[in-house]
Write a structure and sequence with these properties.
With about 90 residues, the chain is mainly alpha-helical. It has 3 helices and no strands. The longest helix is centred in the middle third of the chain and has 32 residues.
């Protein structure tokens, strides 16, 4: 992955890290269940977006790099791997 793409993913992961730390504090403080779940959902979305960004970058790399999957068998294998990764986040 390119440096700029990595920076974006790392920023998303840091945001999720902060949200998860906040959820832990909320639970330890005995905060309202609805508030905790709302923050958990936000952290989950941040993680999903980071994962999708990684997959999108891999897909873009495969489409633009002629050596990534030179033959049809390689392309099919790569497609299957990317699909599996995508579905792991669904």
């Amino acid at each position: 992955m390119a440096a700029e793409e990595l920076r974006t993913v790392v920023n998303r992961l840091r945001r999720a890290e902060g949200q998860i730390a906040g959820v832990i504090r909320m639970i330890e403080e005995g905060r309202d269940c609805e508030d905790v779940v709302t923050q958990l959902a936000a952290a989950s979305r941040a993680l999903d977006r980071a994962g999708f960004a990684v997959i999108a970058t891999g897909l873009q790399h495969c489409l633009t790099d002629p050596d990534a999957a030179a033959d049809d068998g390689g392309r099919e294998e790569m497609r299957a791997r990317l699909e599996k990764l995508f579905l792991s986040l669904a």
